[in-house]
## 1
Amino acid sequence: MKKKLLWLLPLAAILLTACGTSSGETDESGTAASAPNEPKETTIYLVRHGKTWFNTQNQVQGYSDSLLIEEGEKQAQLVGKGMKDIEFTAAYSSDLGRQRNTAKLILEQNQHDIPQITENIGFREKNFGSFEGLSNDDMNIAVAKALNLDYPEDSDELWDFLKEQLTEEELANKVAEVDPTQTAETYNEMHQRVSKVMPEVMKEVDAQGGGNVLIVSSGGIIPIILESIAPGEYQGEKIANCSVTTLTYKDGKYTIDSIGDTSYVDQN
């Protein structure tokens, strides 16, 4: 009888070990193991490009491009230094040089392996048609006149005035309406372009296991990106040069953590 019991003890130990392993509760180190189908989490750092020459000259800057000025390069470097300890699994910009170079300068400060920058035209700024390269005042005055508004003369006051009078959608459509060549994007055209880009990006990032993602875009298109993934969350917050908007993506849903954060560049 004793011999039979001694033979059963090792068998019971084997069965107990097998049960513990198959339950998925612990790994070899004794740490609780993750459920195999647990949703992956991604943190997205959505950055506006640094200041450009067109920005300093009050020129319309959409699909047309303009070089980063020294201040814009420094802004990107400051953002990079502030994010140097973040390990990015992916990085994106459009094919516009001001966005691509901002992303490059940010990543150059990073302490981890640097991902290749993937270009996607969905992150391009708005297309302002024949207003591209002209004074912002020319475009804004054309909009104000078409609306028969008594508008202020100062450039900044005029822009703020129009933003108070019109929604993002109304302003974009009015610019397209008054464009003499009728080549400026309507809001619907921009929204269709932008609504495709985030699902494309998240599909690629999910395939890599989630993580942290850097995206560099432009001040006019970032609000439309936000509206496409989290309708109603953007409330007109300023998107300054090299400001950072932070999002969390998990289980097919986006959470906006901050919009237009300038704390990285304000440290200067």
## 2
Amino acid sequence: MAKELDVLRDKIDEVDKELVALLARRLALVAEVGEVKSRHGLPIYAPDREAAMLARRREEAEANGVPGDLIEDVLRRIMRESYASEKDTGFKCINPSLRHVVVVGGRGALGRLFVNMLRLSGYRVEVLEKEEWARADHLLADAGMVLVAVPIDVTEAVIGQLGRLPEDCLLVDLTSTKQGPLNAMLQVHNGPVLGLHPMFGPDVASFAKQVIVCCTGRHPEASEWLRQQMTIWGARLVQVSAAEHDRAMTFIQALRHFATFAYGRHLAEEQADLEQLLSLSSPIYRLELAMVGRLFAQDPALYADIILSSPENLAMIRRYYDGFGRSLALLEQGQRQAFVASFNEVADYFGEHAGQFLRESKQLLAQANDRRHLA
């Protein structure tokens, strides 16, 4: 039996080597594609092309007795690596006549990311940090765009210190709240203003499929080139008002971060054995625990600033707290049927999204389980 297995395993190893060689060839072709896209100003992410290609590969796979989900999983992982490598060739510069760009806070994590993307696109970028403010007037005097990428708690103060900018200079911020910073920019600058909120962290390998929220402040035509540039980087732009943005962020950021913090704090106060929890966990709980632990591997001041950035955030958390208490009361009172009825009401609210989320989560859980190494 051992000899039979060794022979078969050797054959599998040979096939794996062929797969590695094929992947290397594919990545080399991707690099050539990236060069063509860079010359012609094409986005690195083409959703229609991706969807059509995946559909064809699924058909071909199933015709050869290979599960369609398998080939799609493999190709999506390959494409993610491809998007990351395509950016190495650089991007077409949409606005080559733009005067230099100043990124205030350009040595911070998110600021560095945008400095790099702008430089890859051929723009001349200067970085301005607080210890270099003595040269601010010189750098800002002839800037074509000023991008503010500083912590939330000082964003509006920094905007207020910018002074007079050239009339045609595009003033942009990257803060995760929008009404306050947008109003501050409109007050300090009479020219074009745009609020951005990248819905991702600075550790992304590529902008492909990443969401950037856009909130127009003034003269949207003057920022069209930047929107096109970010689209070339692969980002998906979502246009909303600053008020709509901040309302959504109470759910997407403040409430979610607080709930995660509270759960992590409870685990710590209970001194739960994390190693035991991991050894006993299902894939879904392991994934949930990973998302909780992920929060505590990052900057606590950032999350404090996000949660405290608006009174509406605290009001939302208070309503969540009250609702949590009402749900707990149902269980404490043994009201099983009332709990089931409440559950069904929420299920009705989610509607078709519940089924969609179930399918998506199954894929995520399968991938998370694949990563587990059980000694």
## 3
Amino acid sequence: MSSENNNNNNNNNNNNGVYTSEGEEKPLLLPRQLTLEDLERERRQRLCLALSIFCCACILVGGIGVWKLHMTLARDTANYYTALATHALENIPNNNYPIPTQCETTLLLFRHCDKDGPHIQDEHGNEHCGYLGYERAAYMATLFGPQARWPLPSHLFALLPERNSNLNYREYETLLPLSRKVNLDIDLARHPQLANEFLDMLATGDLCDKVTVVSWKHSFMVELAARLGCGPNNGCPSSYSEGEFDQLWQLKYVYNPPTSSQFDPDYSSRRRILKGKKNHRGRGKHPNHEWAVYGTVSQMNFDPLSFSYQNGDYQGNGSGNWEEEPEP
């Protein structure tokens, strides 16, 4: 009898609705009917999602395209400067001067002094070093000489101050303290004629065991280095940062440098193993009587506070005296 009652109650519940524990009937929740506004909202959401995916895909494809373009331009630039450097080395004049084998000479190439801060222009609109630039120039002069970092230079070159509409003395001012220290005139040169002048000097053998210092405009440095025979394959970079002032490039020239066999006694036997293989292109051969150049990038490590402190500033006795006059 009880089972029949339960069945009847279940049937009633199924027919009439759902009841709570207190016996109250709960209304059935029927699916909400979608209105035109709901359908339009869903359509817009799907459209926004599709547009977002499309924009992300475009950004990704565009980023890959820009990256590939950048890599292509960088490769083309490197190839250009490599070809320019190769052409420069191959066309060094051969004047049959008696140049010692393995004659070495080094050219130091760096940017002009810092140009940040006030008072970098005079009343005529001409460009000059900033205060830190003058300090850097004075610091750089301390890097040359006996017991210093580098030997005294034999030649100083700076970019000619004449520009399109004004005079820019920064390259000249950068070398001025060093010029006073070694009592050596600064030769002013145009871009890119300096490369031809230096390579002509190189061909005479007069630069053996000497150092040449060049202060130049940063946007011309890569091209100048390439015209001097130092491209990306020789160790010279194919770009120079806009905000960089401390970097220095060393171009070491060696006349008729040692061959691999002179460094490696077993080179000849290994060289015979290579014979007969395709596309070795004479690997290991080294023509006689030629100049080779090796580029190295280093830093001057200029520290304004350290330099000022070493010159008497921050010691309670006034300002540092880094503007020294040349000895008579």
## 4
Amino acid sequence: MKVSIHGGWEPVLEPEFNKPYFTDLASFVRGEYQNHQCYPGASEIFAAFEACPWKSVRVVILGQDPYHGPNQANGLCFSVRDGVRHPPSLINIFREIQTDTGTAYPESGDLTRWAQQGVLLLNAVLTVRASEAGSHQKQGWETFTDTVIRTLSEQKKGLVFLLWGGYAKKKISLISGAKHHILTSGHPSPLSANRGLWFGNRHFSKTNALLRSQDDTPVTW
């Protein structure tokens, strides 16, 4: 696995690349991509960082691991390639945006447009084997992305963290509530949303209200 990350993330992330856990992780990922179909494409593993430079981060959305279906994952959590059918979780995200902000349901499921506005779309695990959800968990990715979250918390202030579902909520301990804003709710997956744990959270308008309170530009969702 060749690691090359730009956008001002180098000083933050490069120290991790020389640690034993990351060396083991890189070896594992390299073997998986050589012997199995894996997602996202190798050039998009670190796309979340490339699309949202360090200095631009204002909002952080945490996912678990990439979509494991063909042509879906593009390296940004909850995002799919242009023209790809929207997965159920993304449909529920867009429906909540509709009711929360009054905007139209978007045709494109590619959330690069959010990343370009300072929304870091970070999965806890950055790779997955095709058709095997969670197959690359507990190989070192969580150590790496926990470091990202912790460093963002330590070195920035006034970020809005959106933690959806039990897995994401476990990351609260990495974030300083005194320095940042933390919004939590159920996951947008149908299982959670249909139990009344997602719809109505109004996280998108709440995020923009928090940004405005800091004299920051709201996100165009």
